[in-house]
Amino acid sequence: MTGLLLILSVVAVIGREAIREPAADTPAIAIQVGAIGQVADGFVVAFEALNQANGTAVAVEIEGTLMSGSSLVERSVATIDYVPGHGRTSGGLFFSKDPRKNRLIVRATGFQDP
Length: 114
Known about the structure:
This protein is α+β, with helices and mostly antiparallel strands. It has a single domain, classed as Immunoglobulin-like, CATH 2.60.40.1620. It is built from 1 helix and 6 strands, in the order αββββββ.
């Protein structure tokens, strides 16, 4: 009987850990779009990646899309090497089309643990 109680306790702890909220050290990257400027080959959208959690993120993928209605006009991707916990890093996305003439969506799409 004691063995059964021990096994049930272990299963309960593992189950609780599996359904808990993500740990506070999991990176939480929010993107703030900055200035949009014209460059020689098109346009650049400046952004700042803000890590709102304790955990550090590396190889953070940032995706920018230009949409016209439900149609994709253009896509741009940037990789940020490092965003520390509660830190910020800036970058830019290049587009050939003017982002001000379409709906611009910029978001973080993934990261790696250091």
